[in-house]
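Next comes a single protein record:
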Amino acid sequence: MLHVLLIEEDTHIFKEPKSASIVATLADAPKEYLKYPLPDDCKLLRLPDGRHMAYAEYGSKARDAHPFIFIHGIPDTRLDACLLQSDTAIAEKLNIRWIGIDRPGIGLSTFHADRTVLGWVKDLEHLIDHLELTKYRIFGVSGGTPYALACAKLLPRENLLSVGIAMGVGPKEAGKEGLSKLNRIGLWIWEKHPWFFRLILDRCVAPKVHQESCVKTKQIVRQSTKYMTKHDQEAFSGEEVFQGLVSITREVYRQGSSRGYVEDSKLATGYWGYELHDVGYEGVRLFYGKWDVNTPPALGRYMAARLPNAVLKEYEGKSHFTMWDHLEEMLLDMMKESETPENI
């Protein structure tokens, strides 16, 4: 179903020679993508085929900081790696260097038609080479799960110290146990008729968001939170979180359309291009809230049973977005897991 790059079955990463990627500047981005200011120090890497990959670094600036590559959810952006002041404080406390990356069609990352989950890992490899990372960890959230596990499957074991997934989606065969009725309907539409969401989003959302003023974006964010559970609404009640959601929404639609968001959703709800038992990476950490109706813990249990020596942690009284209360604990868990003599 998906076009997978040629890989030897027992290899860790692509075998063809690596092509040089070069630094690009914001001046290289299409002018219409810069209709409104960037909310952070976003950088561009020009990939060998000419596409741009947008990324930003947050948290600790120390030379010995621990690199964590953030694999964002859907719809989401690089910003979520360190969205709040509390996130920054945790990163500095734990000496974590966050690297947030926008997938194709999000932010300033060039849209890539007919891409695959596995193929995106090669893009990431170019960024890893550019940043000269020799040891790093992968932390994926929600809709970023297929990409996080693809990294676990393909990136070299000697470099990838640990993989963590919080509130992760599951493959199609994991089922829908624990999903709310609204999420079941939405998932069915994404699987069967993604064009419907593209039509609605491009007509009713993108034109309102892709403006110099963020007034209409704020209205859209306020409206969208009404469909969340009571617990998740409480998590988004603060002004800092609200402004963060506005920034994320504007990055999702920075290119003036929903195509990046829609393509990402199609890939996450379709066949990922690999089976869980083929991932091979031992000790993936899975974190779920027991009250989550977006990505219920049943998905984590399904994946934990099929990933080698995976560790599943379920948090009582936590929903999809209140799971962020345990961010520091999750990160510490990932750091402790990889502190073996050969990795230090």
Remarks:
- The first strand starts at residue 22 and ends at 24.
- Residues 219 and 246 are 9 Å apart (CA to CA).
- The two ends are 40 Å apart (CA to CA).
